[in-house]
């Protein structure tokens, strides 16, 4: 009977590890792939007209990718169309976008005091095609005529267009919000005054940080799992997570404030190397070594810079920078705790006290993590 349970446990774990390996290798790494990022919309009023300047990855919109369903355009069914568009010169891509614009305009939710507004395309500014592995950010400009006496507007677009950072310009106490896919903004006073409170900014950025870990932060997930598989005892995990949290909190703040700026070409390979290190040490050691928390702290500094680069992509409200930064960090921590909780419920709770746990579960799982981390390191350095 005991042997039967062991075999079932091993079979169950084998399925988990096979799925993890398949997903990890087939999903592109964050350093080289076309990661889905929110569009950034700057809204300003000029007389009886609203102007929107939206920084966005136009290729993903034209290709029809559901940006709410994927974390990377390379994982979308429309990837071939996306790559074709990505290789186009600016004039050709702008022409394709103009043909696409009527479809997009129908999916932009824009109202003033409840009355629908009609978006009018001004143009799309397209930079030259970058390296094939680097997303291209174009700037869409459109306008909308305001009805006489309009006092407030609401903005949103269809869920497949992904998340939207909406920033009001040219007024006192402007609105600045992060809209999840498919959300519509609250009424925004055209004269200003809708600036979020510190608490609102804090709460709004918690899901942003969580989303960067689950589901978008596969490399960070594997690093945390590497910490988890070292030992089933609580103390080693607490030492490591505390060191990692302290370190990445420090560099997240420093990087977001602009005090530290290390290129992603350096940070991302080292993040991959950190995954390999913790996984290999799990295989070679039986418990927490004296130097492990210090090494985890050092790697945490680099992971924090990776988190900061995400905030740099779409910005943090300048008037509520600290609360938003704290909210993002709390979201990251909740994401990490969610990963550990799921790993414990799936593996640790059932098998953690078994005498064969390390040989049959921790070592094979760490080996898979090391292979994936090694694959990413090679990809990020040489490919």
Task: Give an overview of the whole structure.
The chain crosses the membrane at residues 220-238, 266-284, 296-314, 334-352, 359-378. Residues 1-33 form the signal peptide. Helix 6 crosses helix 10 (321-351) and helix 7 (234-256) packs parallel to helix 9 (292-314). The chain starts with a helix and ends with a helix. The longest helix is centred in the C-terminal third of the chain and has 31 residues, at 321-351. The protein is α+β, with helices and mostly antiparallel strands. The model is unreliable at 1-33 (pLDDT under 50). It folds into 2 domains: 2-30 and 205-382, no CATH class; 39-195, no CATH class. Helix content is 54%, strand content 14%. The chain contains 11 helices and 10 strands. The strands form 2 sheets. The protein has a 6-stranded mixed β-sheet. The protein has a 4-stranded antiparallel β-sheet with strand order 4-3-7-10. It has helices at 2-26, 58-63, 79-86, 90-106, 198-213, 218-228, 234-256, 264-284, 292-314, 321-351, 357-382; strands spanning 39-46, 49-56, 108-112, 115-116, 120-125, 138-145, 152-157, 164-169, 176-179, 188-189.
